[in-house]
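Worked Example 4.2. Read the sequence first, then its C-alpha cells.
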Amino acid sequence: ARILPASPAARSTMAAEVAAAAAATLRRWNGVVRPRKVPLPEKPKLTLYEFEASPYCRRVRETINILGLEVLVKPCPRETLRTEGAYSSKSRHKPEVRAAGGKLLFPFLVDHSANVALNESSYIVEHLWKHYGLMMAPSVRPELPLIMHGCEPDPGCRLVRELLCILQIPYHFKPRDLDSPLPHLEDPNTDFKTFGARSAQEYLRDKYQLGPPLPLTAPVPEPNLGDSGRTSPISWFLPR
C-alpha cells in the first residue's frame, strides 16, 4: 500500500480527550449506527489498527460510524508506557503494521480498495471524508410538499428525514405515537403512500434524486451567498 506522509505524533493528554469528546457532541453523533443515506458504488475494504484508550483512535472510530462504513478492527494495546512503538512476540497485529510500512503509532488504517495506508487520525479522517463522505444531492423540486407521519425518536423516521433533507424536499410533518406503524410517507404529487423507511427511501431516490451527493470536503461555493465570516464548529473534524 502507498504510505502517506504523517506529522510527528502528539501524546495522549486529558485535554485532547476532552476536545475529542466535545467534537463528538458538536458533530451531533449520539452513538446510533446509521446506515448510509446513499449506497457506495463499491463497499470499501478497510482494516483499522488501534487501541481503545486513544482519543485519536476514537476520532477515527466516530468517523467510521458517522459515514456508515464497515471495517475490520485489529486491536493493538500498549505493552509499556515507557516508550512508543515497543512490542514483544505476544503482540498479534503490530507486526502487520510494520510489514505494511506504517509506524507503530495508532491509529493506522489500511484502505485495501484505494491501495492506501495511513498513520495519524487527521490524515485518516481526511481520507475517509474525501472518499466516502456524503452531503447535499441534486434533486427535482416537487410542486407540492410531501407528508411525513412520524415520531422523533423512531430511527426509521430519522433515516427518511435525513434523505428528505439531503434532497431539499419540503414536507408537512404530522406527529404520531411511537407505537404507530412508522414511518409513513405520502406524496400528493403522485398519490404515492408507503410505510417503512426502506420503501420510502427507495421511492425518494428513484423519483427525486438527480445525481450523486456532494462530498463533505466540497469547497465553499462561489459566489458564497451566505455568511462567509462565520466558521462552522464541525470544521475541526474536517480536513484542512
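Now turn to a second chain, presented in exactly the same format:
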Amino acid sequence: EFDRIPVGSASLAQVHRARLRSTSNHIGDEVAVKVQHRYIELTVASDLCVVRWLDRLASVAFAAEGFSLAWAIDQLSSNLARELDFELEAENSERCRCFFQEHPTLSKRVAVPRVHLGLSTKKMLVMDYVHGVPVSYLVKATQRQAAVVRELKHANNAGGLDRCEPQGGAPPQESHDIQELLTAQYSSQVADSLVEAFAAMFFCSGFVHCDPHPGNILVEM
C-alpha cells in the first residue's frame, strides 16, 4: 500500500504514507517514505553553479573591498551533499533515537521514529509513521485561548459580559473549541519537554537536531 499523494513536501524531498507488506500473522507496519525529488542533484548542482558565478561577479565588482563568499558557498555545497545522502540521515536518526530511548527522564516523553534500514537507500528513507499534530498547533491554540480570555475580561470590565454568553442555553463551547482549550493546556508540558530535550542534546549528547521546525516536531494528543 502506497499513497501517491504526498503528506508533506520540502525543497529536497517529499514524504508519502505507506504500509509494508503484511504476512499471515502480522499486519504490515505503517511507514513514512521520504523520497528525493526527481533530478534534485542536477538542480542543486546548477543552482550552486549560478551562485558561484554571481560570487565571482561580485568579487570583481567589489575587488577593492576584498569581497568574496566563496568560503560560504563551499560550506553550502558540502552540507547539501550530506543532506542528499539519506543513508547518513538514517544513521543520524538512529543515533538520536537511541539517545532518547535510553534517557532516564525523556524516554517516555520523546520518541524518534525507527528507521527501516533494510528498505532505505541514499535517495529514499523509510521510517515508522508517527501520528500527531505539529507543535505549532499548540502554540496557535494557546494564542487563541489567550485572546478569548482577554476578550472576556474586556467585556466583563465594560459591563457587557452578557453579550458574550450563549443564547438559548447553548453550550459555551463547540466540541472543537473544547478540544482546542484542552490542547492549550498541554502547551506548557510540551514546552518543558522540548527545553529538556534540547538541553540534553546540547549538554549531554553533543549530537543536536538542528532543524526543529514544526513539521519535524509532532505532538501526540
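Notes for the reader: The first strand starts at residue 8 and ends at 9. The CA atoms of residues 132 and 156 lie 37 Å apart.
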